[in-house]
Amino acid sequence: MAISMDRKNGYFYLRTKNTVYVLGLHEGKYPVHLYYGKRVKSPVLSSHTQALSFAPYYAAHGYDFLPDVTSVEFPLFGSGDMRATALKLRRLASGAAATHFTYRSARKLAGRCEIQGLPFASADENTQTLELCLEDEVLCCRLYLYYTVFPESDVISRHFVLENRSEGDVSIEKCMSLALDIPRDDLDMISFWGGHKCERNYQRTPVMHGNQRVQSRRGASSHHYNPCLLLCERKATEEHGEAYGFNFIYSGNFLDEVELSLNGTTRVLVGLGAENFTYLLKAGERFSSPEAVMTYSAKGVGQVSRNMHDFVRSHILPRDVFPQRPVVLNSWEAFHFDIDAKLMVDFAKEAVACGMDMLVMDDGWFGARTSDAAGLGDWFENKSRFPSGLAAFVEEVRQTGIKFGIWIEPEMVNPDSALYRAHPEWVLAAPDYEPMLSRKQLVLDMGNPAVRDYLKDAFAKTFDGVAIDYFKWDMNRNFDYAYSTALSPQQQGEAAYRYMLGVYDLFTCFCQRYPNAMIENCSGGGGRFDLGMMKYSTQIWTSDQTRPKNRVYIQYGSSFGYPASVMSCHVAKLAECKNPRWLDYRFRVALQGALGYEFNIMQASDTVKDALRRQVEEYRGYERLIFEGDLYRLLNPFETNGVSAYYYASKDQNELLLSFLQNEGEKKPRSFRLKLTRAEKNASYLDRLSGKTYTGEELRRGLTVCTDKEEQYGIMWHFVKQ
Ligand code: GLA
User: Fold this and answer.
1) Is 185 annotated in the active site?
2) Which residue of the set 544, 584, 630, 687 is catalytic?
3) Which of 37, 109, 461, 654 is the most buried (most CB within 10 A)?
4) How confident is the model at residue 575 (pLDDT cuts 50, 70, 90)?
C-alpha cells in the first residue's frame, strides 16, 4: 500500500519500493515534514523544532510551534517562516500578504488528479495520491496539497490547487510546487548550466548557507539552466551515499531554490518562482500549479538518475508510435534553407540506400522562407519549391521506401510574413514600445485563443490528408517578458505562464489530430529539454552542437535526469571526418540516444555509405538495451578532460553495453579501471564484438582500458550472458 494514514496521531506515510516519506500534523493543525529517506521499519521522525531567538510564534502555541525553525510541509510567506517560501498570496482588498492555513481534511485517492491544461505524470495501477486540504479562514482560500506516489520508480510528485472562496481577488505572487526540508547541512548540489550549443554542463558545488538558485527567466526552460537538480551528501558517489533528485513538469520559466539555514536544514523548492510570475485569482476561481517530482536513493547519484529514467519512461514519455524508433536523415546541416522537392526526393533515395528509415525535411519548405528573414507564420508550402503541392511531394518521398518528417516552428512569426502583416497585435510585445527581435523573429502570444485557433486551422489546411510520420517542433528564440493584448493590465504577470498553457494546448491538438505521427522537440537544440515537452515528444534534439567532442559533455549532463531514449543524437559534419576512425567515433558518441544522421549524404563516398549501412545495422542490435536498460556512468568527462565511459545493463542483467570515448589524443596514455558492478558474479559473459569471454566476477572487478595517442577514439563491448 503506497499511502497509509494514521489519523489518530496525525501521521501520513507515502511508501515507494525503496523510500518512505512521512508527514504529520502539529497539534492536529499544521502539516510538518517528518522524514524522507530509505524505507526502514521505524524511521526517525522529527521536524527539528528548536527555540531560536527572533522566531515568531502564536500566543496560543508559544514555543511549541515556531514555523521559522520547523520543517513545515509547505512554507507560506507571511506565516512566520522567514526562509524561502513556497507560496506568497496577497488579499487585494487589504493589500496584506499574511496567511494562516491550517489543516482541514485528508483523502487518499486511487490513481491521481488531473491537472487542467498542464502536462502531468500519468498514473498506473500502483499510483496513489494523498490530498491534504488546508484552509485560511481570513483569506477564505482552500489550499489542496497533492502527493502522488509512483512506487515502482521511487518517485513522489507534488502540486497544489488554490481555491479562492472569498468575494474578493487574491494575487499569487510566488508559486512553488514542491518544498522539502532535508535535515542535513552537508549536501552538494548538482545542477546544469549552459547555452545554445553547449547545454547542460554538469556542476557540483557545496550547498552553502544562504540561498542558491537555478532558474530560467527566458520564457522557456532554456539552454542556460535545466530544472533537473540533484542534491547528495558530500561524500556521495555514483554508487554510494544519500542522494535526492528533483525536476519540474513544465517548459517555461522556473525556479529551483536551495537554502541552508541556521538550524542546519536544507530547504529545496521547485516551481514557477516569483520573478516572472504573478496570477490574479479572482473570487470563486481555482489555480493549479504545475507538477514537480522528487526521488531519493541511499545508493548514490547513479541510482537517482536511474529512478528518474524509469519514471520518465513509464510516466512521462508518450508511447512510441513505431515499433522501432526511426533512424532519420535530416536536411538541415546538409542544405540549410536551400531545399526543394527534387533535392529532397534524391536525398531520400540515398537515405534508403543506407538503411535509414525517415527523411526529415527541415526549415525552408513554406511561405517565403528561403532564409531566416521571412515566412515564419505562413504555414503553407512554397509553391515554387514544391510545384505539385505538399501531399504529392510527400507521396513521392514515401515511394522511395522511407518515412517522412517535417519541421515546424508554430510559436513564432517573422515580421516579414503574411501573418504578421494581418495580425501585428498577436505577438508578445508591450504597447507603444518597439518589440525586440531575435533570429529576426517575434513570439506569438500563444496564450491568446485566437492565435491558437488560427494556427490549428492553418496547420490542418496544410497537413490534413498528408502522410506525415514525424513533426520536428522547434522554438528558436527566448523572451524576457511577456505582454499579451488578450489580458487586462492586472493580469500581465500571467502572460508567460498562459503562453505555456497555450503551447501545451497546441501540442495536445497535434497529438490528437495526428496520432500516428511522432513529435521530436527542439528549441535551437536542447533549449526546452524538460519533462513538460517530454509529455508530448518521444525524443528531443539534444543540441544544435553536433561535434562529438562537445556532445560527450552535453549528453553526460543530460543523462542525470533524462533517459537515453529521449536524446536525439545525429552523426554529422562528415566533411570533417578526415580519418575513417572519426566517423566511427561519431557513431559511438551518437549511441547515447536515438540515432540519426545530418549531412549531405549525396557527397559521401561509397566507402562511407557502406560504413553508414553497417552503423545502422549495428545500432539495431543495441537499440533496446540503450532505450530500456539501466545506465551506469563510470567516467565523468568534466573530470577527465573529455574521457567518458558508461554502460547500459538490461534489467535482467543478461546484456551489458559498455562504451569508452576519448576526444583528445594523449601524449602519455592513461588507464582507467571500468567496473561493471551490475554483472552477475557467477555468470559468464561473451563480448560479441571481440569474441572474448569474461566471468561476471572479472567484469565486476573491472576492465583496464587505456587512452590512445590519437584523438577521437571510441571502443565498445557488448557482453551477453552465456
Ligand atoms: C534550429 C534547430 C535546427 C534547425 C534550425 C532551422 O536551430 O535547432 O536543428 O532546425 O533551427 O531553422
Assistant:
1) no
2) 544
3) 37
4) confident
